[in-house]
Amino acid sequence: MPGPKYITDIRKVTQIPAKERERLAEVARRFAFRACEYYLSLIDWDDPADPLRRIAIPDTAELEEWGSLDASEESAYTVLPGMEHKYDQTALLLVSNLCAGYCRYCFRKRLFMKSGEEVVRDITGDVAYIAQHPEITNVLLSGGDPLFLSTPRLDALIRQVREIDHVRIVRIGTKIPAYNPYRILDDPALLDLVRRYSTPEKRIYVVTQFNHPRELTGVAAEALDLLHQAGAVLANQTPLLRGINDDPQVLADLFRKLSWTGNATYYLFQCRPTLGNRHFAVPVEEGYRIFEQAKQHCSGLAKRSTYAMSHTTGKIAVVGLDEHHIYFKYHQAARREDIGRFMVFRRNPQAVWFDDYTQPIRTYGIAPHRASPMQPYP
After folding, report:
1. Where are the alpha helices (DSSP H) in 271-320?
2. What distance in Å separates the CA atoms of residue 93 and residue 82, rounded to the nearest whole number?
3. Do strands 306-311 and 314-321 pair parallel, antiparallel, or not at all (unpaired)?
4. Residue 131 burial (CB count, 10 A)
5. Helices H, strands E: what count in the chain?
6. Could you count the other beta carbons within 10 Å of the beta carbon of residue 241?
7. Contacts of 290 (CB under 8 A, 6+ apart)
């Protein structure tokens, strides 16, 4: 099986016909290309609509002028260079602007276009900020991909965060187990790092991104098992993507395989309206039906995902449809008073994002003076 050699020039992917490579090079000049030989070996090159090809290989549809580079307005919650504090309990650190592969649907493709201007190089200031905010119990390392960093660099980052007593969870957001599981299989020091910092009361969470069941190969499952044995808690999130996992059976297979490997389904995200992502977008209401149909084929352990939009204002869960209405609830929110807020809108079958709905017909909020914040207002 091919190992971790990386390719950054689409013209060197010889499985693609030469004329097509030249057309795709134009796309790659705008939205960078990177892939691993291992992942490229999983693609069925005889199928132009192969879902793994769609994940990793540029498409001229990306040149459509649709969406924005910061669709969830992360810049509004950036408190220090490379650090976001949107939700009370969680600080997010952008620690890398590189990945083992660049997902074509990436919602942070701006990081690869701006030479890592938003990525933190020295987290001293971030650690001081976190230490001064005892409400922060979770620190999420993201990017880019933190596991693309060297193990000594990752160790130094986690060690500094672990010195803050009120930080109970360190999350590592990564697609490495799907793109290049050999990063885990061939580096015992990485597993030693997990053993050292994932303790009974302060866990390391590895939040993976498997988008399609074919990514869960034997070596990927082995890598997940090693992380699990080292003490990591595993959870998976994926966007809902046209031509990749927008079939209920495919999505069900993904959820089931994740549960079999001990990787909890966490979020199914609505694809963000990011520049170049129009061809990946599934309308919200169609997405809800796909999600619910997929869950019909899953055990309870395999259907723990929340279908949500990571909106500017918070994570908005899609919780129901009837003949005329769609129902949303703030699963998480930038403003604490919005958490748990229930909203009813008139249906819009073409809507691909929360902003495509107009003013809600009704909202149901929280009454802190009458009940605890977790009890909805009657």
Report:
1. 284-295
2. 6
3. antiparallel
4. 16
5. 12, 15
6. 23
7. 240, 246, 247, 248, 251, 282
The reply to whether the predicted model has a pTM over 0.90 is: yes
**Helices 188-197 and 151-162, packing angle to 10 deg:** 0
Helix (H, G, I), strand (E, B) or coil at 68: strand
Q: 280: closest CA among 107, 46, 32, 30?
A: 107
Q: Is 94 helix (H, G, I), strand (E, B) or coil?
A: strand
**78 backbone dihedrals φ, ψ, rounded to 5°:** -80, 115
Q: Which residue, among 243, 103, 105, 125, has the nearest Cα to 174 in the 3D structure?
A: 103
Closest CA to 286 of 318, 254, 315: 318
Which 8-state DSSP code applies to residue 117?
A: T
Sign of the alpha-carbon torsion through 30, 61, 281, 298: negative
List the pLDDT tens digit at each of the 378 positions of the chain: 445 689 999 999 999 999 999 999 999 999 999 999 999 999 999 999 999 999 999 999 999 999 999 999 999 999 999 999 999 999 999 999 999 999 999 999 999 887 667 899 899 999 999 999 999 999 999 999 999 999 999 999 999 999 999 999 999 999 999 999 999 999 999 999 999 999 999 999 999 999 999 999 999 999 999 999 999 999 999 999 999 999 999 999 999 999 999 999 999 999 999 999 999 999 999 999 999 999 999 999 999 999 999 999 999 999 999 999 999 999 999 999 999 999 999 999 999 999 999 777 877 775 443 333 333 322
Which single residue is written with the structure tokens 């495919």? 250
